[in-house]
């Protein structure tokens, strides 16, 4: 029962609609009515600029971290003999937070794609792996200005790091890493098509948006 209540808490944490609250509270508009229509960091970067996008990305990542940290509220997982159970429960908490981000109860179940919250999940369980993925993300973003491409390559780097660089032995975590990469690629199919066609939208990194763009699909 306690685990179930923590899972509900993880969902509620993930449901915090950062992009919606920032866009409404600071800019007087609903981010879901502009750009791709998603309430995530990518669309915030595109519509509101790098400052707002960075803030939304940071908070959305923290949602994943906080959800995973809920596991430490149970004494059962303090025992080193229960390490496998701990990792499995942490992954479960993080994934529920991602579901909350995608279908937020606080914002009519219209959220984002959950990439930043996924990174937060990984950051809480494997900080070095997460920081490596963030490094890949920032490098690709700096070189290309494509948030979507940065997310895709960083997600592909995740299982590569887990399987070959850090040599993680926990089976469920290895499967999870591969599943994350596949999920990100599948949810970015339209972006991939636009990248190949050369019409994917770039984001400005060193200046704010002076106007909102409509009808930009993510």
Automatic annotation (TrEMBL):
It is found in: Cell membrane. Coiled coil: none annotated. Its EC number is 2.3.1.275. It comes from the Bacteria. GO terms for molecular function: acyl-phosphate glycerol-3-phosphate acyltransferase activity. Pfam families: G3P_acyltransf. It catalyses: an acyl phosphate + sn-glycerol 3-phosphate = a 1-acyl-sn-glycero-3-phosphate + phosphate. It is a multi-pass membrane protein. PANTHER family: GLYCEROL-3-PHOSPHATE ACYLTRANSFERASE-RELATED, INNER MEMBRANE PROTEIN YGIH. NCBIfam families: glycerol-3-phosphate 1-O-acyltransferase PlsY. Catalyzes the transfer of an acyl group from acyl-phosphate (acyl-PO(4)) to glycerol-3-phosphate (G3P) to form lysophosphatidic acid (LPA). This enzyme utilizes acyl-phosphate as fatty acyl donor, but not acyl-CoA or acyl-ACP. Probably interacts with PlsX. This is Glycerol-3-phosphate acyltransferase.
């Amino acid at each position: 029962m306690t685990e179930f209540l923590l899972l509900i808490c993880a969902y509620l944490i993930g449901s915090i609609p950062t992009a919606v609250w920032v866009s409404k509270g600071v800019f007087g508009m609903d981010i879901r009515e502009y750009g791709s229509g998603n309430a995530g960091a990518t669309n915030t970067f595109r519509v509101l600029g790098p400052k707002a996008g960075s803030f939304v990305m940071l908070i959305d990542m923290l949602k994943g971290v906080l959800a995973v940290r809920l596991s430490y509220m149970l004494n059962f997982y303090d025992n080193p003999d229960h390490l496998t159970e701990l990792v499995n429960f942490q992954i479960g908490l993080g994934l529920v937070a991602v579901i909350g981000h995608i279908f937020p109860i606080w914002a009519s179940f219209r959220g984002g794609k959950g990439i930043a919250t996924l990174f937060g999940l990984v950051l809480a369980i494997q900080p070095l792996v997460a920081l490596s993925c963030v490094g890949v993300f920032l490098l690709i973003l700096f070189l290309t200005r494509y948030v979507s491409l940065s997310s895709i390559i960083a997600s592909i780097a995740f299982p590569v790091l887990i399987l070959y660089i850090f040599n993680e032995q926990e089976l469920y975590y290895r499967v999870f890493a591969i599943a994350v990469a596949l999920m990100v690629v599948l949810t970015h199919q339209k972006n991939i098509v636009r990248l190949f066609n050369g019409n994917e939208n770039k984001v400005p990194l060193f200046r704010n948006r002076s106007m909102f763009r409509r009808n930009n699909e993510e």
